[in-house]
UniProtKB/TrEMBL annotation:
The keyword Plastid does not apply. Residues 1-22 form the signal peptide. This is ABC transporter substrate-binding protein. PROSITE patterns: FE_B12_PBP. InterPro entries: ABC_Transporter_SBP, ABC_transptr_periplasmic_BD. PANTHER family: MOLYBDATE-BINDING PROTEIN MOLA, VITAMIN B12-BINDING PROTEIN. The keyword Signal applies. Residues 41-295 form the Fe/B12 periplasmic-binding domain. Pfam families: Peripla_BP_2.
Length: 332
């Protein structure tokens, strides 16, 4: 994009904007952001499926102005927001952000979890809100912030109450458990535990994460020798290909989880449940059903998932769709 063309787009954007914005909110970096009273076009950047999930929970999927990058496409994103299929893609794995295309969309709100992106686009005059999710319960603060932007505080309160109720329920189960099995959430291709939030849900669900050493980094890499020494009793993987690898690769045959057929694929709804997602309460219930199956049956888990999507995403899913999500079979 040439500097002259960029300036023309910025000028056009400024001319088309109202003389004064209706209100201001403070984002999770402490930045004051002026936004319009009525938000009709939202651009989500970076962790697009994660951010989109919050809009689904606020029943604002129709405001999404951009589509999913191919590498981040998830089948149920299109189920929860059918209009995504026809929206322009404004970021890519190789070219990064298409700034010109973002400006041309004239968004009322831009959402990102990358502070550099927030600052860059904010300097161009766009209303960019930075979202931070480091601690597990940040999901509630993030939901409350976006609910403020859309004037839907009641939905944020409802979600927070449900989140707390599930954590309390599952904590009671795990607290009464006599043993905590060794659990590993793993990317077998890279021998990493890819997301720190898994340390939280494994512990809350009644397991003992073998990678939980108090680390601060998002992911941790380890050797095959270390993995064998940990000898996890339960393994969680991200997709069906990894499940096949766990059982087919001779390097893993002596692991307790492999021997006992306790390798499981994380469910995939709006996003992968094992990672950061608005579906985190379901992650806890699902993990508890694996670690202490006497506490929650498959039938109860299915009912809980169906109720969650109906209540928070305003989407009634069929039994087949719930089964597909729980099986982790909806990857793309």
């Amino acid at each position: 994009m040439t500097p002259i063309r960029l300036l023309l787009i910025i000028a056009l954007l400024c001319c088309s904007a109202p003389a004064a914005q209706a209100r201001a909110i403070v984002d999770m970096a402490g930045r004051k952001v002026e936004i319009r009273d009525r938000i009709e076009r939202v651009v989500t950047l970076g962790a697009v499926p994660v951010i989109n999930g919050f809009l689904f929970a606020l029943h604002e999927q129709d405001t999404l102005a951009n589509g999913l990058p191919p590498q981040l496409a998830r089948k149920y994103q299109y189920v929860f927001a059918p209009g995504l299929a026809g929206k322009p893609v404004v970021q890519g794995a190789e070219k990064g952000l298409a700034v010109e295309d973002i400006l041309a969309l004239k968004p009322d709100l831009v959402l990102t979890m990358d502070i550099a992106t927030a600052q860059k686009l904010g300097d161009l005059g766009l209303p960019v809100v930075f979202l931070r999710w480091t601690a597990p319960e940040d999901v509630k603060a993030l939901m409350a912030l976006l609910a403020e932007a859309f004037d839907k505080a009641d939905l944020a309160r409802d979600y927070a109450a449900y989140f707390d109720a599930v954590v309390s329920r599952v904590s009671a189960w795990s607290g009464a458990a006599l043993n905590r099995p060794r659990v590993l959430y793993v990317n077998l291709r890279r021998l990493t535990q890819p997301h720190r939030i898994a340390e939280w849900w494994i512990e809350k669900a009644g397991g003992r994460s073998v990678t939980d050493d108090g680390r601060l980094q998002e992911s941790v890499t380890f050797s095959l020798e270390q993995m064998l020494a940990w000898d996890p009793e339960i393994m969680i993987v991200a997709d069906q290909g990894e499940l096949k690898t766990a059982y087919a690769d001779p390097r893993f045959k002596d692991l307790a989880a492999v021997r006992d057929k306790r390798v499981f694929v994380a469910p995939m709804g709006a996003h992968l449940w094992a990672n950061r997602t608005i579906e985190q309460p379901l992650t806890l219930l699902w993990a508890a059903s694996l670690i202490h199956p006497e506490r929650i049956s498959r039938e109860k888990l299915e009912a809980e998932a169906a109720a969650f999507y109906a209540r928070f995403f305003d989407k009634a899913l069929s039994n087949e769709q719930i089964d597909e999500i729980l099986a982790g079979a909806s990857e793309r």
